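U., I forgot to send this yesterday:
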Amino acid sequence: MRQISKPGSFLFEQIGEAGDSKNSTRFITLAAVILPIIILAIYVILYHVDFFVWDELALVPLFEKLSTNSVTINDWLKPHNDHQILFPKLLMVGLLYLFDFQILPILLTTILFAAIGYLLIWKVLIREGNQTALTIISVILSSFLFFSFLQWENFLRFWQIVLFMCIVFFISSTYFLFAKKSSITNTMLSLIFAAISTFSFGNGIIGLFSNGFLLFFDTSEKDEKKKKVVTYYLGLVIISIVFFSTFSGGGGNQSLIQTILPNLIKVPVFFLFFIGQVIVYPFFANKIL
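Result:
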């Protein structure tokens, strides 16, 4: 005798099959995205050299002061080649001390930061209703490009963590400002990440102002948008004042007014330089992911 299915059972079966198919697609996509990251990590583990080169030698005077307990807050805030690198400097020094000056932990941390930033972008792109075949293929192929051996210099020199921290925390700031639900908490998290990005590499403050501009096009409700804009711009002003007041030499015995006014004159030059440097110096483009 033919078995009669219960009303609606066919529909539930189809929904279950669709869910299994979606989960399978997500798993395959995630595995394909992670594969080049794993290959790159193995490459770095096998071929890294515990040696300081170029910019990395700038840490030597700091270690000398640390050994004599003469380091000050100005030493941490002192820019390097017109870049504020406070947070990468803290991380690099901490990891070097913790792991007896072996650079591998910093290199692996760099890969971790790059992976987090990439996966945040992936999370935004692969949304419900946006999981088209073209999008998934683009995400997978771009992973192989993003983590390719063409970027070997960025992943084998520990100083490059300053660049990755700037980019990843800018992505995180943007994610909490626009991709997450509007709230004071998410806006504050966005500002925290923006501050870390700003004090990781010179271009970070460009992202701070860019998000401030894009915030006016936010589609949140009027009251929520107003709170978000006010909170973000208050944070933007505070971060900018701290950034440019320590821009020349990391602070000093001068007052805030004496320090910030000369640096404010440099602001237009600063922005024009960092916006146009890839155009003026095309060979720097491979350093910016």
